Amino acid sequence: MITIIALALLGLLTLFLGLMRRKAWLLPVILAVLAGTMILTWCAWDFHPGIAARMLIQDQQTRDFSLVMLFSVFLIFLFAGHYYRPVVRPLEDVYAVMLFALVGGVMMVLSGNLIVLFLGIETLSIALYILAGSHKEVLTSNEATLKYFLIGSFISVFLLFGIALIYGSTGSFDLGEIARYTGSHAGIWPPVFRAGLYLLIVGLAFKIALVPFHFWAPDVYEGTPTLLTAFMASMVKTAGIVTLFRLFTMGFREAHTLWEPTLGILAALTILLGNLTGLYQLTVKRMLAYSSIAHSGTMILAVLALGGQPATVLLFYTLTYSIATITAFAVIILVREVRGNDRIDSFNGLGKTNPVEAFCMAAALFSLTGIPPLAGFFAKFFLFSAAIHAGYLWLVLIAIAGSAVSAGYYFKPVIAMYLKEGDGMELKSTNSYRVFLVFVTALTFLLGILPFLVTIS
Amino acid sequence: MITLVLIGLPLLFALVVFILRGEKTIRLTALLGSLITFGWAVVAWVNYAHFCKCSVLFKTAWLAGSGVSLQFGMDGISLLLVMLTTFLVPVIIGSAWKHLYLKPAAFFGLILLLETAFLGVFTAFDGLVFYIFWELALICSWFICAVWGGKDRIRITFKFFIFTFTGSLLILAALLFLYFRSPAPHSFDYRWLYDAQLTTWEQRWIFAAMVIGFAVKIPVFPLHTWQPETYTTAPAQGTMLLAGIMGKMGIYGTIRWLIPVVPEAVAELSQPVIILAITGILYASLIALRQDDLKRLVAYSSIAHMGLITAGLFTLRPEATDGAVIQMVSHGINVVGLFCLLGFIEARTGTRSMADLGGLANQAPWLAAFFMVILLGFISLPMTNGFVGEFILLLNLFETNILFAAVAGLTIIFSAVYMLWMYQRVMLGDPVLPGRSAGSPIRDLSPAEVLVLIPLVIMIFWIGIAPGMFLKLITL
Q1: Phi and psi, residue A13, nearest 5°
Q2: CA distance B63 to chain A (A)
Q3: Is B177–A393 a contact, with Cβ atoms under 8 angstroms apart?
Q4: Interval A259-284: pLDDT, tens
């Protein structure tokens, strides 16, 4: 609760700072308050099984995932100043909408009630429609927002219809009540309930871009301003997956025979098609879009494997994935700034002209591939162990095959940076930007060498 | 603790080398680092053989509560491979003495980092730690080959990477699965994995996954296709590291992590592996006969030799393991010597094509002499190191199946044919290199180069004449 309030107030504050034309204050204030909110969330979390009539659930799990999302957004704001350097106006609207999207994400994670869940999803989505089109003079940005908006609002109907059917059969929006209902009606769930459940799956699968509901994602990722693509690929992805995880492990745990096969097949398809299609992409942004699709497939393994267990595995995965993705996008921002595009051959020769940036990019991509001793390896390691333990060996084998395929595209930028000759043009990186890059890369190494820093807490 | 220092030393020097400036300082530091590591390995050996008679162990919990521990130690097999690695790396660094590489700090730093990875692979007692070093070795060697390699290196090293990375992932899957079948509370310690409870089918798929993973690295036919191209395009030092040490990781993995873990499946399915390995021997030998590029020839002959080791190992006879280990050491020394000499020849003549070479012995008698000695080791002449291992391996194959031994024995004949033919074409006869016959004599070996080769020659005869002290280590 305290997190949501702090973030919403920060959003309003940002808007007022914009009104008062305090451009120089904007980012420092946002970063400071975000850091403060993280500390507040960490220290002053009011553990509570359900506040406001069980609308929000504040347990350790929701606290940790909220922290992951806050941290991702914090990292993105670190890079925001450089990205928006050429823009003269204060941009308070964009920053505020990002913060409101974060409020929506935190609400999704905290929700203990389908209505709050839907509110969270819509808060997040509407903010994202705006963000996707925030470069309104660029045609692709307009395309992205239109596609995202049309498909997203269409999908919201599925979600809403699913929620309605669930309410119709269980008589409650409350996840605890729904869990009690699914438990007491085990095996004899009425068709209305089943239909509602599957509609929910479809809706959420669209939101987190599982195959075959993924086709909006690459276009939207490509057209969206790069900084906000990083936002979508990290914070929004985390919110979606965690929502799915909590919904199915809390509300519909007892009905797992209904959704486990479906989610398993969706995960397998997502991993395979996401990675295979990634091989054929020419731009790094599209490539990372498919990578993010494939990673959501892998994260579904956690939903299947973890049952009622603590979700540290998923926590570690979302954290390391977000950090690596943000690092990669931060380098893409630099490349796009100089070359105007992010085709793979635009990365040629970076290893020579910009060794620091190239190294950070390579480390991020290696982490996403899952190569030890980087953090991404342990993320996959913990997740695969849990899945094998739960009896999902077949899915783990598919995920491992997917990792092998993913090396095929993650290495393309690395090869371009280190092995191909570029035109010698240097990226316009500033010292502070470089420090931030090194900081996030150091995190990737740190979590790889000492993964228990996160997994113990 | 000794083992930990052993792994830490090259790592430390690698980090120092990465930040150093100045060509000469970098070379000296790298050489010094590898020599100190070798010295420390000798200390470990003496300690093992004379004082401790037990594995030199270091252990600490790493991922608390999940059965992953940082655990390093050595038994005789590890010790021999550690000696091989620490012995070869100074030679390899020395062989690059006169060669100018771009970005020398990165090049020599990566070689030392790769040595760390090798030592980690050979001493890890914990499956996950083993895997991490295994991947580290892959990344380092990929960078060495891809950045400093020759023609068409991007495509070729990419193929190398994808092949071996896929193999590694299969090993990871098998290790993860084994972990959950190990006695509770689960552990990745290899001695716990040996006690894993597995059904027949589980044993079979673990066997399949691990055999593929290790066979890619060795490489065994038909998973060898990355090898000749990669060896050819890699820089001379990269080829030596790959052929001399990295291929041995596959065999070592088989001995430590495959055969004792799923013994029943291995016993059941060893025949197909032997047949594949022997097919590879024949196939690679025949192709080697037709090669014109010197490096490609040695690459193919390497497949044949590693095939013999694999075939012998999978007879599962206890003595065959001795043969395999001693032959790993011998082959490592010989192949590094050969590639080293090929590098010297290429540096002098600018070509590796046998059609363009000839009559080098007249102008460079020392080069020819060293070439002959190492070549004799390579074709397993009695009294050289190659003979000991191949003899034991063939003997075991013979006692398993005469047909196997007969076909595998062809390696020795074939390798004599193509190697001696190569010698004849390169060293004897008339110099046919255009422009060479008239004048501009080819330089003989410099003292520094002789200094690099002498340790190799000493080892060739030492192992050949007194293999007992090495064999004793394995069975200790």
Answers
A1: -55, -40
A2: 6
A3: yes
A4: 889 999 999 999 999 999 999 999 99
